[in-house]
Amino acid sequence: MASKPGILTDWPWKPLGSFKYVILAPSVVHSLYSMLAKDKSERDITNFLILPFLLWRMLHNQIWITLSRHRTAKGNGRIVDKGIEFDQVDRERNWDDQILLTGLTYYLSNYIFAGASRIPLWRTDAAVVTILLHMGPVEFLYYWLHRALHHHFLYSRYHSHHHSSIVTEPITSVIHPFAEHISYLFLFATPLLTLVFTKTASMMAVFGYVTYIDFMNNMGHCNFEIVPMWLFNIFPCLKYLMYTPSFHSLHHTQFKTNYSLFMPFYDYIYDTLDKASDQLHDSASKREEEIPDVVHLTHLTTPESIYHLRLGFAYLACKPCTSKWYLCLMWPMTAWSMILTLAYGRTFIVEGNHFDKLKLQSWAIPKYSQQYFIRSQKMPINKMIEEAILDADKKGIKVLSLGLLNQGEDLNSYGGFYVSKHPNLKVKVIDGSSLATAIVLNSIPNGTTQVLLRGKLTKVAYTIAFTLCQQGVQVATMHKDDYVKLKNSFSSFGKNLIIEKSYTQKTWLVGEGLTEEEQLKAPKGTLFITYSQFPPIKYRKDCSYHFTPAMLVPSSIQNVHSCENWLPRKVMSAWRIAGIVHCLEGWSEHECNYTMHNIDKV
After folding, report:
1. Of 171, 218, 376, 548, which residue is the least packed, with the fewest Cβ within 10 Å?
2. What's the pTM?
3. Which class would CATH give 294-433+575-594?
4. pLDDT band (50, 70, 90) for residue 349
């Protein structure tokens, strides 16, 4: 929001929220009806192609978002090092408003103007006129409009909303108040209306021109340098006709320079060119991939989790992962992604953060949770994890923490398989069990004398039970098998380990395998504390459910603008934090297999 919002700041369909797309419904229905009901000679293919074009614009923008977030996480070519925060993601979540505005304009123009309907696919004169009008009037008028928007009166009421984002993402380019977008709409309509009124329009000119605007807008705000220096060395005049991401980045950091739209020659003419433009372009182009100190290795969870990744849909990634009904409509893309994971065998970078001088990254194995339970997939998954560890070791990364099912007992003995196979590893492999145990123990209410332990018995579960029994807290189990396993693992449980039949405990420590029937046996007001990496399904509204072991992150960790799976904002899992702690403390041993750090020390 601008510092002093002016009139027509909000979009007219803001009250509709997520249902704003219904404003296009009448036009879309009419378009489909016309294609199906009318004779072939009366059909207007131009009108029919408006909807696919709008969908293409959304896909085009999303491709840039994914590419930008991936490249800035890697670090090569990155321009501005500051991070993005949740408030910026929230501010920019309605980037599709301008696509709706374009759709309405196209449909209305198609109905009103004869020159905007039934236009041919290609006309050379249409392409030439569009290029000339853009290079002339559009670029010139935009330059002076942009300078006017930086006058304190208009800036405080409108343009400051766009400049709230110092570190830009591709979609930052279209984040403006409604009134400002109206001015851009009239400006960019100049070439198109000229074609319509002269009846020289073509689909390639109309749709291609807007695609060009989207491409240049996204590129200019992507925060990584994509234009090579050698291009301007070979074609020197090109730097007057095409800006670069670093060129426009200076406008967002310096404010009073580099006002041009896409062609910087007006900044040269009117002496508003930032003197650091060439230097920043050169330094950003030469910037190499960043080598982190700590890597957290995770994986995909549900088929829909690809959309919740930081590289996926920004408005979903910034919220805890939950199922959305409308994602079912994207089943072709979801199915294709699952097929792709069967063939693609390398990890990919999901996120990059900075914690003071510590550089952090999250990598993901391209496998879903259910694939970890398929026997034929265990060997390929183990190979990918092993390759990630060896890659981290080769790059000089200090610590690699294993997240979710990447550290399964049956899969790789909590990471011990890799350390045994490669005894000379310099990178420290961490399963985070000690910190997860410490967080669970710390979550148990003071004064608790008895807890019930139910779920799959893991390394964390054994350690929790042992520690509580040593502290004099009675640990009850539901099943005799669990009791026997715990009893055989430690000889000093004594009378504090029992089999429970009445289920009167108000504190339950639960892991994977907890059923609905078992939850219904808990007394009203029971606190369910999860010790596993996956949360239980919540069947009881009269009970409390703790998050999976996690901690709030300090404000000094930069670039945290997505949620880790089902955890809330600004929260990281214990297994991810364990790697950071291990690196900060400079511990020299692995934490994997069945070894653990001292709980009190952690």
Report:
1. 376
2. 0.94
3. alpha beta
4. very high
